[in-house]
Amino acid sequence: MKKRKTAEQIVEILREGEVSGVVETCRKHGISEHTYQRWKKAYSGIGLDEAKRLRQLEDENNKLKQVVAEQVIVIKAQQETMKKKGWM
Predict the structure, then answer these.
(1) What is the pLDDT of residues 65-74, one digit of tens each?
(2) Which residues contact 54 (CB under 8 A, 6 or more apart)?
(3) What digits encode the pLDDT tens for the residues 19-32?
């Protein structure tokens, strides 16, 4: 399984691509030019601090989604129990 790059790493790779060239940078980091262009579109104009903050927000968002998913499971289980007992 490939390791996902952090926002900071992506910004650094994009900067390197501007200096060293896209093809050479992609080859060095083992990414496709399509991936590079997708990253460039998503991360254009942001600095390292902003990239770090974006990554923190993405992580927090994923954790919150997980909590919501777990709560949905609990609620559904409680509803099923209530139906079986005739409370609903």
Answers:
(1) 999 999 999 9
(2) 7, 46
(3) 999 999 999 999 99
